[in-house]
Amino acid sequence: MVGGAVMQESDGSDINTKIFNSVAEVFQKAQGSYAGHRKHIAVLKKIQSKAVEQGYEDAFNFWFDKLVTKILPLKKNETIGDRIVKLVAAFIASLDRELILAKGQDYELSNDEEGVFSRFVDQFIRHVLRGAESPDKNVRFRVLQLLAVIMDNIGEIDESLFNLLILSLNKRIYDREPTVRIQAVFCLTKFQDEEQTKNLTELPDDEENYEATRTLVASIQNDPSAEVRRAAMLNLINDNNTRPYILERARDVNIVNRRLVYSRILKSMGKNSFADIEPHIFDQLIEWGLEDREPSVKNACKRLIAHDWLNILDGDLIELLEKLDVARSSICAKAIEALFQSRPDILSKIKFPENIWRDFTVEIAFLFRAFYSYCLDNNITEMLEENFPEASKLSEHLNHYILLRYRHEGVPNNLHVGFDSNTLEFIIEQLLITAERYDFSDEVGRRSMLTVVRNMLALTALSEPLIKIGIRVMKSLSINEKDFVTMAIEIINDIRDDDIEKQELEEKIKSKKGNSHKNGVSSDGEDNDKTNNDATNDDEEDDNIASFHSAVENLVQGNGNVSESDIINNLPPEKEASSETIVLCLTRSSYMLELVNTPLTENILIASLMDTLITPAVRNTAPNIRELGVKNLGLCCLLDVKLAIDNMYILGMCVSKGNASLKYIALQVIVDIFSVHGNAVVDGEGKVDSISLHKIFYKVLKNNGLPECQVIAAEGLCKLFLADVFTDDDLFETLVLSYFSPINCSNEALVQAFAFCIPVYCFSHSTHQQRMSRTAADILLRLCVLWDDLQNSAPGMNREAMLKPNVIFQQLIFWTDPRNLVNQTASTKKDIVQLTFLIDVLKIFTQIEKKEIKKMILTNVNAIFLSPEQDYSTLKKILEYSDDITENDTLDSVSKNALDRLRNNLNVVLEEINERSELQTKDENNTTNDQYSSILGDSSNKLSNGDIDHSIGTINEDSTDAANAPNNSTTVNNLQGQSNLRKRTRSETEQDDTLGNSEDTLKQNTSAVTKDIGFVLPEEKEDAMSVDEEDNDSNSFTDI
C-alpha cells in the first residue's frame, strides 16, 4: 500500500516514522484538553506542508487516517473521542478558510495547493465512509459524527463524493440506533438547497438537490425517536414548503419538541411569523400552546406572546392585537388573558379616556372587553372603577354604535367615516359581551341598557351572533326567567306582526294603484278587466266584513239563527309571515329556549309559542325553516317529558328520512332528550320502542356517507353509555366495530371521539368493563374476518386502512385490564373480567382459519393479567382450553412457544393458590386445636374432685341417655368442621382426600382425649353440625 511505497526508499523509512511520530504526538496531546487545539492545528498544518514539499503527501494522509480510525470504536460518552473529532474538524476548517481567504485577496494559488486540500478531504471522507456499514454502533456513530463536523467546515466537494455521501446517509437515516440517525440528520441538513424551493410532493425523484430535504421531512414526521425528530425540526430549512411540517411538531408526543416550537421556531421567526404563517394555522398554534396539558409548553407559549412578540413590537399592545387579527381569530381572548397573567405591569398602563368611547376600533373594543373580563375575574376593583363608565353611559355608547350600523341600513355612504358594517358589528358584539357581566346595580342603568337591547333585538337585519349575545344580555338584565320569556316572546310576536302588517300595507298600496290606474288610464280591455277584478275583490272583502259585523250584532241581540261556523267563515283569511321573518323568529326563539329552565307546564307563553310558531315550522316544507323548527322543538322537549314522548317518533323520522343537516339536528335532539329524561321517553304505552331507536343509531354509524352524523351519533352514544342510560350490548358492539372499521379510517373526528370515549367508558366502572369483556371476543372475531377480506381484496383497496388483528387484540386486552380502573379497591386483583375475555377468545379460536391471524392472537395472550387472588376454576378453565388448542391445532413454533409460556404461567399461579390453600387449612386446624386445649384446661381447673365424682356417677346412672347423646369426639369434630367450612374455598374442595385423612387422625386423637377426661363438654352453638352432616355438606360443596 501507500505506506509500503514509502518504505521502499533508502531513507524513506526514517521520514515515514517521523511523520507518524509527529502526527501521533499531536493527537496524543489533543485528546487531553480543548485548550491547545489551536496550537495543535498549526503543528498539523506544518507537518502536512513539509510532507507535501518532500513528496510524502500520501504518507501523511495514511497516518492521519490511521490515527483517526483508532477513536472510532470509542463510546459516545468518551470525551477523548469528542476532542479528536473537534481537532479533525478544526484542522479541515482551517485549511478551507485559508483557501477562501487567499482567493478573496486575489492571491494566485497553484494547482497543487488546491489539489492537496481536495485530495486530503476526498480520501479522508472515503476512508471514514467505510465504517458507516460497521456492525459496531459506536463506529457508525463516530463516522457520522466526523462527517457532520466535516460538512460544517467545507465549502464544496466532488460530485461523485457527494453522490456517495447521499447514498450512505440515506441508509444511516434508518439506522436502528437513534444516536446514529441524529448524526445522519446533521449531515443531511448541510445538503439542503436554500436558494430554490419547490413543492416537496411534486419533486421528481431524480433531483438530487432536494433529496436531503425530502428525507428530513420524512424523518420529522415518522421517526420513532423524539431526539431525531427534534434534530430534523431544528435543522430543516424554514420556508413556505417545509414550514407546515415544522410547525406540526406543536402536536408532537414529546414535551420538549412541543416546547421548542414556541421557544425556538416561532421566536426565531420574529415579525415574519405574523405574515408567513397562514391565519388558521397561526390560531391553531396559539390554541395548542395555551391549552397544552404540560405547564412548560404552556409557559413557553405565554412567554412568546407576552415577552417575545410584544417586545418585537416595542410594547405596542394595539399593534399586537392587529397582528393577531382579533376580528377573525377565535383564540385572541385566551391569548390576551395569558398576556395579562404574564405581564401584570401592563394593566396599570391601560386607560380608556372619555374621548375614545365614540371612536372605538376593532382592537380597542376587543381590549376593552378583555380588560374588563380580566379585572372582574381577578377582583381588581380599583381598575374597574377607574376605567369603566356607569351602566347608563355604557348603554348610550352601545346605542351610538347600533344607530351607526342600522340607522342607514343599505346606504353604506351614510356610515360613520372609517367604519364598515363588519367593524361596527364586531364593536357592538364586544360591548354586549361586556354588558352581560356588567354591574347593573343602578336601576336607571339597567332599564336604559334593557331598552337598548330590546330595541336592537327587534331589528330584522340583526346578525345571528348579535342575536345570540343580545338574548343572553337580556336574560342577565331580566328580573326573573318569566320576565325574560315574556320580553323575548313579545319581540318575536312584534317582528311577526310587523311583517304581516307590512304585507297588508303593500296589498292596499297595490290596490290603490289599481284603482288609480282604472280611473286615470286609457280604457284598454285587459287593464279594465284587471281593475274590475281588483275592485270586485275589495267589494267582496268589504261585504264580508259588513256581514261579519251584522252577524255578531244579531248574535249579541239574540236575533236570527246565526251559527258560530258562519261567523268564522265570514272572517277574512289570516295573513302568514314571510319565510324570512319566520327564520328570524325561530332564530330568536331557539337562543331564548337555550336559556330557559322552567318546566313547560309552568310556562304558558312557551306553550303558546309552540302552537303558533314551532309546530307549523316543523311541518313546513322549506328545509331551513324545518331544521330550525326541529331545533326549537327539541329544546322544548327538554323542558317537558310528555312533549318529548309525543315527539320521539317525529324526531326518529327526521333522522331516517331527512337530509344531512336535518339528520344532524335531530340526532343532537334525541341524544339531549335521553341525557335529560333518560329511558322514561321509551318502552311504554304510547311510547317509541327503544329497539327502534337503537336501529336508527346503528344505521347512522354504518352510513359513512354522512361523516358529521356519524360523529354526533358516536359522541352521543358514548355519553349515554357512560351514564348507563343505554345498556344494550349489541349497540355497544356496533360502536366498537365502527371504531376499527376501515371504511371510517378517513373520518378523523369519529376516530378521535372513539379513541377518547371508549377508554374512558371502560375504565370508569367495573360494570362497563364487564360489558366490554362480554362483547370483545365477538368483536375480535368479526374484525379478524374483515381484515382477512381486506387483505384479499382488489389491488385498488387500501389494505393499510385497518389495524392488524394483533393490534386490535392488544387494545381489547388493555380495555379489559382491571388494573386500569379508576377508584380501585382491594378486590381489583380478584377481578376475572379479563380472564373471561380470554376464555371467550380461546373458545372462538377454532373459528379462525388463517394461520397468520392465529399467530397474531396467540403471541399476545401472555399480556393477560394473572394473579393468585383470582378464581381458581376460571384459571383452570383457561389451562384446559390452552391444552385443547395445543393438542388439536397445528401451530407454528412461535405460537406454540407463546401458548406454552401461558400454560407455564398458569401452572405457577395455580400451584401458588394450592400452596396458600394448604397453608390456610393447616393454620385453621392448629387454631382449632389450641382453642380446644384451652377449653379443656379451663374446665379442669373449675371442676373439683367431688364434682368430677358426681359427674362420673351421673354418667353411670344415665348411661342409656349418654349413649344417645353425641359423644365427645363428635362434639370436637363439630367445632373443627365449623371452623373449616366457614373459610373453605373452591380450590380446597379438590383436596378432600388429603384433608380427609388428616381429619380422621384428628378425630381419633380427640376421641382418646375425651375418654380419659370422662365428662361431656358444654353444648355448642345451634349451627353446629354432626359428622354426617358435615360430610354431606362437604360432598355437595365439592360437587358444586
Structural class: mainly alpha
Query: What characteristic shape results from the CA principal axes?
Result: globular
Q: Major β-sheet, in short?
A: none
In total, the number of strands is 0
Work out the radius of gyration: 45 Å
Which segments are poorly predicted (pLDDT under 50) over 5 or more consecutive residues?
1-10, 410-416, 521-536, 942-1040
Q: What order do the helices and strands come in, and which of them pair?
A:
Blueprint: H1 2-7, H2 12-30, H3 37-53, H4 57-70, H5 79-104, H6 111-129, H7 137-152, H8 159-172, H9 178-189, H10 211-222, H11 226-235, H12 243-247, H13 255-269, H14 272-276, H15 279-290, H16 295-312, H17 317-324, H18 332-342, H19 362-377, H20 381-387, H21 391-406, H22 421-436, H23 443-457, H24 464-477, H25 481-520, H26 525-557, H27 564-570, H28 579-593, H29 604-619, H30 623-637, H31 641-657, H32 660-677, H33 690-702, H34 707-722, H35 729-740, H36 748-764, H37 766-791, H38 805-815, H39 833-844, H40 851-858, H41 872-888, H42 893-942, H43 945-957, H44 959-964, H45 968-983, H46 986-989, H47 992-1013, H48 1027-1039
Helix pairs in contact: 2-3, 2-4, 3-4, 3-5, 4-6, 5-6, 5-7, 7-9, 8-9, 9-11, 10-11, 11-13, 13-16, 15-18, 16-18, 18-19, 19-22, 21-22, 21-23, 22-24, 23-24, 24-28, 25-26, 25-28, 28-30, 29-30, 30-31, 30-32, 31-32, 32-34, 33-34, 33-35, 34-36, 35-36, 35-37, 36-37, 37-38, 37-39, 39-41, 40-42, ...
